[in-house]
Structure formats: structure tokens, C-alpha cells
């Protein structure tokens, strides 16, 4: 009698993935691009790895602070006021240096338009 061929089971393969979930990370290329823009000189690989670790720790702390501000206010969504409060506590935003001035000084025009609403009337811009 002829038997039908049965597929052999693959050993060690179950329905679940064997990988551990990883934390999201900022792309190395982005960190390198931003850092090299401000440094303007060659950087060793070891120095760049330290910069990468520091930026990762900075953004983790930044996100946990924003989460704390938001939960303290009884909300589930981070708002602009939370970011401004964090920047004020870090000393980036002061009475002499408001957030709008920082945005105009450091961000490209397309981001400025998104963050600072400007009413346009005829040929005049009214902030």
C-alpha cells in the first residue's frame, strides 16, 4: 500500500516568538547626524558610543518627567504646557527667553509654522 507523505514537524518552532521584546531606540544615524552637525570635527567611535548612551538616558528621563507632569495634571495625553514646564525647569525657557523665541531660533520654517500659529490677513502676518 502507498502511504501519503506527511510533512515533518519543524523542531523548536512554536507559535510564540523566541525573542525578548526590546525597548524602542532612537536611530543611531539620527544621533550621529545631529551630533556631527554641532561638533563640526571628527569623533572617535568610543566617544560617539558615549554620546549615544547619554542621549538615550536623557530621552528616557525626559519622557518619564513628561509622564509625571501629565499624570499629576490628571490627564493621559502630554500637552504643550507639560513640555514648556519641563523646559522651564531645565532652564531653557525663562522670562527673558520664551518658548516661541527658542522655536524661531532653532527650528526650520516648516516646523515653526506647525508650532507657532500665525494669522495671515492680506499681505500682513499677525502673530
Automatic annotation (TrEMBL):
Pfam families: CENP-T_C. Residues 1-24 are annotated as: Disordered. This is CENPT protein. It is found in: Chromosome; Nucleus. GO terms for biological process: chromosome segregation; kinetochore assembly; mitotic cell cycle. InterPro entries: CENP-T, CENP-T/H4_C, Histone-fold. The keyword NADP does not apply.
Amino acid at each position: 500500500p502507498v502511504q501519503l507523505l506527511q510533512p515533518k514537524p519543524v523542531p523548536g518552532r512554536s507559535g510564540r516568538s523566541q525573542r525578548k521584546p526590546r525597548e524602542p531606540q532612537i536611530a543611531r544615524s539620527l544621533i550621529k547626524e545631529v551630533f556631527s552637525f554641532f561638533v563640526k570635527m571628527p569623533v572617535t567611535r568610543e566617544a560617539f558610543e558615549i554620546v549615544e548612551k547619554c542621549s538615550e538616558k536623557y530621552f528616557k528621563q525626559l519622557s518619564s518627567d513628561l509622564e509625571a507632569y501629565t499624570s499629576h495634571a490628571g490627564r493621559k495625553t502630554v500637552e504643550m504646557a507639560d513640555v514648556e514646564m519641563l523646559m522651564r525647569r531645565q532652564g531653557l525657557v525663562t522670562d527673558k527667553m520664551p518658548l516661541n523665541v527658542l522655536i524661531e531660533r532653532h527650528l526650520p520654517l516648516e516646523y515653526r509654522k506647525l508650532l507657532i500659529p500665525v494669522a495671515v490677513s492680506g499681505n500682513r502676518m499677525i502673530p
